[in-house]
Design a protein that fits this description.
The structure is a homodimer.
Chain A lengths: L8 H15 L6 H8 L3 H8 L2 H24 L6 H18 L10 H9 L4 H28 L8 H20 L4 H12 L5
Chain B binds a DNA duplex through helix 3.
DNA sequence: TCAGTTCTGGATCAATCGGTGCAAAATGGA
DNA sequence: TCCATTTTGCACCGATTGATCCAGAACTGA
């Protein structure tokens, strides 16, 4: 009952996500969001309550999609654990170049949001925290598997190695935003794995 | 001649720097800057032309100070090169906790600005680029020294190792913003050095 | 002491911000 | 067909944005 929506909510969320991704939270106005989604402001507010709420939805969608993709790569039981970690880094580098124009990468919405809002916005911080835990857990599981199988070798404990890899991933993404080329990023990733895989 | 300024320009720049550091460029209004510096708006505009120009000055000041401090640590000829790299990472972790309140670290203005403005703002990008080159050069010089002396060991070339360390530093800073504790950051740094120092 | 110059404080500017009010439009159920 | 309900487009809200204007204060050199 009632007038049906003229838009697909998931498409709108995707468009909003891309807008926030490119412009940041503060840097993206509600007018920008309307242009990106094709909706009018009243429709946006009717469907998503507020800019902040829309951002939460868009960020959660991004985190879910991103972490699911990464978990899929890390959970590929057909390959050795070390190779899965290597494939994850390769995928991340691909992503940095997939939707890049002529300028530097737009980076990763998770890193962008951590830098912009962690510590200022409690709700957003919670979303990021929860996602970070999931990613660390997935990394740690693969590392434990690799240590047992012997294709990952390190004197460090799995939780530390997971934290380390997560930091390297963030570092790769910041480097990409800073203008590093594909070869640079691949060299960083390869060097990072020298400690784990031999 | 003319009425003398009632403020010290360097102090004002420091205050503005801290405000931008904590709030980001978009997130810090000219009113915020006035509150942080104690100046009136007309004084700010009279002395620094515009918000953007003030940000450039504050960022340049930050980059100069930060990179000079790091170059000093890396140039300490009394210690082995590997130890200098280790000291640099220790110093960076200290910084993340030095001016942290109860919440997560405010991070690094260079990383914050790279994430927020690189690709959107050409002038700022140039400042960041120039600083990145200086930092990479300083890192590469120490690494070459360490490789010659033998206390740094790696099959990778010095430029790659410098890029790698720079990415690790960015990763540590993002991790700090994401709420990682001191022990976490130290473990990340120690793991990162496993590839270089043995 | 006064002219010339610079700086300061407060009012003010147009533009934009996030958000709302309202009437017309579009549906399903009665 | 008409009512209840929801969405849509457009005008509009007060607040805030970056920036400017201007009168007066504070200094130097003549």
């Amino acid at each position: 009952m009632g007038r049906p929506r003229a838009f697909d909510e998931e498409r709108v969320l995707d468009a909003a996500m891309r807008a926030f991704w490119a412009g940041g939270y503060e840097g993206t106005s509600t007018r920008d969001l309307c242009e990106a989604t094709g909706l009018d402001r009243s429709s946006v507010y009717n469907a998503f309550t507020s800019k902040h709420e829309l951002f939460k939805r868009a960020l959660a969608r991004y985190l879910d999609a991103m972490t699911a993709t990464q978990a899929e790569i890390l959970g590929d039981v057909g390959r050795p654990a070390g190779e899965r970690v290597r494939a994850l880094l390769a995928r991340i580098i691909d992503d940095e170049f997939r939707c890049r124009g002529d300028g530097p990468s737009i980076g990763c919405l998770s890193v962008n949001t951590t830098v912009e809002l962690a510590g200022h916005d409690e709700e957003i911080s919670r979303l990021l925290d929860r996602d970070l835990r999931r990613r660390l857990d997935a990394l740690q599981a693969v590392i434990e598997e690799g240590l047992r199988a012997g294709d990952i070798v390190s004197g460090r404990d799995p939780a530390t190695l997971a934290r380390y890899l997560n930091a390297v991933i963030a570092g790769i993404r910041v480097s990409a935003k800073g203008g590093a080329g594909r070869a640079d990023l691949e060299a960083i990733a390869a060097t990072a794995l020298d400690t784990l895989i031999r």
